[in-house]
Amino acid sequence: MDQAKIMEAADRLWTAAQTGTPCAPVRDLIGSDDVEAAYAVQEINTRRLLGNEERVLSGRKIGLTSKSVQAQLGVGQPDFGMLYDDMEVMDGEEIAWSRCQQPKVEAEVAFVMAAPLTGAHIKMIDLIASIGFVLPAIEVVGSRIAGWDISLADTIADNASSGLYVLGQSPRRPADFDMRLCGMVMLRNNEPVSTGAGAACMGSPLNATLWLARKMAAAGNPLGPGDVVLSGALGPMVDAAPGDVFEARINGLGSVRAAFGEA
Amino acid sequence: MADLPAIAEILDEAARTANAVAQISETTPLTSDDAYRVQALSLERRYARGERRVGVKMGLTSRAKMAQVGVDDVVWGRLTSAMRIEEGGHLSRAAFVHPRIEPEIAFLMKAPLSGEVSAMEALAAVEAVAPALEVIDSRYHDFRFDLGDVIADNASSAGFVIGPPAPVSHDIANLGMVLTVNGHVAETGSSAAIMGHPLRALVAAARMVATAGEELRPGDIVLAGAATAAVPLMPGQAIALQVEGLGAVAVNIGD
Fold it and tell me: Which ranges does the record mark as transmembrane (chain B) (predicted)?
């Protein structure tokens, strides 16, 4: 890996985030599909945020969990990004448009962890046993890259296109609803703009989360108590416009709202 | 003046022999009213061959499909006894032009229903709800049609498979639906994609059959509409639909 180019890519994305002005893709520097280089870029900006900026990790997000999105980017794997505590927005709280960068919304299952997940081979039963509770969530994804012109490496380098997130307020246990078959509808002005089911997320949100838990443990940054995991979209992502209010309903899990302010 | 009985014969023969025909709109654009007359006439031909009307199907029940065809209301077609496919059974690919399958919710009626009704009145006329698969098959080349074409072609209805019935107390607003082909997930969706709530499709069905002087009758099946995009059918496919809380329905595709 060319460290100078990785640093240049990190700087380009950092500046775009700081100024709110989208930048060119970084694939000219690190290639379109070099996953290792892309996570190295993400890691540089993670360290900046946790170090100089004193931001606090609140969890992780999983992206590229649907077959159609994986096919679009020509990959067979999801990706992950970091969540910080100031990304959280309250249910229905107005989201200042200036906080968003080319926002789109996705309805997801959020897991809140109650126990650490460490070790060489984390199993599904370990994951299920470590879940404190489950919440419905809307992830407001964003892109620092102009026009969402992203390759696999671009989105990974850009913290998996993370933005903001809203959590619902009806905690459930994993046994309380059907993780695979739960229906999802996201409404805007009473119209369903995205529909889906749990199975759209790698067969089940638990499958995606187990993938993440293993990745995090292997990277020495394991999931632990209090961590929020946004496990991936249950239906197609939808463009958000100023003034839009979205409500996501996940059957058996409750509902949550994302309300955007005027530009 | 369009020769509606002649058009009905063309479409009925196309369906009966599984041979695609040119869009009617290429030579004779049909108004919705005329298109529904053609549909009724073509169904009369089926009844004359011994088929019975056993229910209705609703189509264009998602915003995406309405936008595709450029309309803002749903359409309906008639289901006949010959379209019924045994749950867990086989259907012959060769009996259709270019069949596709869609995951749906079905209502079984227990009381007559027709005209302007509320969702509550509609539900009171329902005996049971069930997961269902609908086989759609446009009788036009390349599955291309305008609104008049598709209405005249019985809203592309071609076959249906009904799964196990559940009581109407079951909340059907937002049920996850997973359609698999040979075990692989082909489509995922929610019953909420059907007009926001499948019961709205039943209300629309009651309104629309009344305009044709018909009613939903006890024992009728009403297919509420598709929850996802349709999947093309090919011989050798094992198709299964699982619906959250309602169970599963399956069919196998033969030559």
Answer: none
